[in-house]
Amino acid sequence: MKNTYRIVEKEDVIKAIENAGYTATQIIGDALETEEKEERKELSSLRLKLIISAVLTVFIVLFSFPEIFTFIPHYLMNPYLLLILTTPVQFYGGLNFYKGFLGALKAKTADMNTLIAVGTSAAYFYSLFLTIFQTKGIGFYYDTAAVIITLILLGRYLEEIAKSHTSEAIKKLLTLKAKTANVIRNGKLQEINIDDVKINDIILVKPGEKIPVDGIVISGESAIDESIMTGESLPVDKTVGSKVIGGTI
């Protein structure tokens, strides 16, 4: 059987990720800083959603259990008031869950967003139905939808904070990589930007220089420090045919 291989382009990887219901962007040069700004913006937006949802949820819970919170005035135990308070939580606080649900639906799969969107929507619209038709003797579930969304928003917020710390570490690693590469093209040695390196380019790496990209040794031999990538403290011997990792020395 003949094995066939093809080169996977960056665009193919991004498209595959998007088809799976996620988003992906290529980080090149200044794009890293743009990505960080977007992350800070997303974190700020998530914080605002969490604060608004948490405040509204406190009142929703208070107004949903008159038998427990007896100090709450009776006129506040109103399903229409609960509807007004819950709607922003459901559709503003839970907006990202709906977006994730639609993305998963497009990819013909299901994830946690699907569970949250379907579960809270069932509680919300069931309670809405009871509110509109003034059904007596049956409890409402506005508090259930609001509490679930708020708690998961809290989890997402904490997760985003952890991811922001990870991004900082990645940024520090990226600053260590080589910015240019010495490429031999048409028999001439050229120094080009690392982003302009193409597959099958022949790169000359001098002693002490960082290896700009992943590749295979076609000539010469040396010992390379791969500790930044593998954690191995001792230099690794490389000869013709050995694989080398970009960013190592």
Protein architecture, described:
This protein has 249 residues and is mainly α. The protein has helices at residues 10-19, 31-64, 79-93, 95-106, 112-132, 142-174, 227-230; strands at residues 180-185, 188-193, 202-204, 215-216, 222-224, 236-238, 243-244. β1 and β2 (188-193) form a beta hairpin. α2 (31-64) packs antiparallel against α6 (142-174). The chain is elongated and about 85 Å long. The two termini are 40 Å apart.
Secondary-structure blueprint of this entry?
Layout: H1 10-19, H2 31-64, H3 79-93, H4 95-106, H5 112-132, H6 142-174, E1 180-185, E2 188-193, E3 202-204, E4 215-216, E5 222-224, H7 227-230, E6 236-238, E7 243-244
Antiparallel strand pairs: 1-2, 1-3, 4-7, 5-6
The radius of gyration is 28 Å
Q: Biggest sheet: strands side by side, in what order?
A: 2-1-3
Number of helices: 7
| Overall 3D form | elongated
Low-confidence stretches: 1-5
Structure summarized in a few sentences:
By secondary structure, the chain is mainly alpha-helical. The chain is 52% helix and 10% strand.
What characteristics describe this protein?
mainly alpha, 52% helix, 7 helices, single chain, two-stranded antiparallel ribbon, 249 residues, 7 strands, disordered N terminus
